[in-house]
Amino acid sequence: MQVLKEDIRGRILTIARQQFEKKGYSKTSMREIAELSGVGIGNIYNYFTNKDELFREVVRPVLCALEAMLQEHHGIRGEDIMMMRSEKYLKSCIDEYVSLIDKHRSLMEILLFRAQGSSLERFRENYTDRSTELVKAWFASMQRKHPEINTAVSDFIIHLHTVWMFTMFEELLMHSVPRQEMEAILHDYILFEIQGWRAIIKI
Predict the structure, then answer these.
(1) Tens digits of per-residue pLDDT, 10-68?
(2) Alpha helices in the chain (DSSP H)
(3) Both ends of the chain: CA-CA distance in Å?
(4) From CA 98, how far away is CA 105, in angstroms rounded?
(5) 166-192: burial string, b at 16+ Cβ within 10 Å, e else
(6) Per-residue pLDDT tens for 86-130?
(7) Contact 114/76 with Cβ under 8 angstroms?
């Protein structure tokens, strides 16, 4: 019985993902997801409380990947700021961005372009605000560790750093940039960013 339930749940998620990708959150109804999944409209609510919960579950893999990226760079697992001087740091950033788009391209498109009307429609803005606070805290901890560096950076510059990242993701997705070209673009973009930060921080 449990296997059957998981099978139905998986089918609902697959159909929901297809519909959200095609029509967006606001124009997709629970009724059509239920019908296309072969599940009664009343029964679908045994699996998901409402459409918003279903939407969040569909995009959960990309939410988790973006959260991990945030923590890896500036949160609980943030690296030492001096790593920015190494070639390894540049390569790891490129690999991380390429992998994110490779694995989650369609989910990123749903999250960034088709979430209007859902509780995630302001995801980009909320993530940017959280990122700004985390970077500020990371800078403060790096300042204690390396008193010679300059971390007197305005909140707005830190804010723009994340805004540009999302703009880059959106442009790569909208223009369906192929992987090989994407790697070259990301190399130049991240190199430009790292060199800029190094000049500001004076490392």
Answers:
(1) 999 999 999 999 999 999 999 999 999 999 999 999 999 999 999 999 999 999 999 99
(2) 2-23, 30-37, 41-44, 51-58, 60-74, 87-113, 123-145, 155-174, 179-201
(3) 60
(4) 10
(5) bebbeebbeeebeeeebeebbbebbee
(6) 999 899 889 999 999 999 999 999 999 999 999 999 999 999 999
(7) no
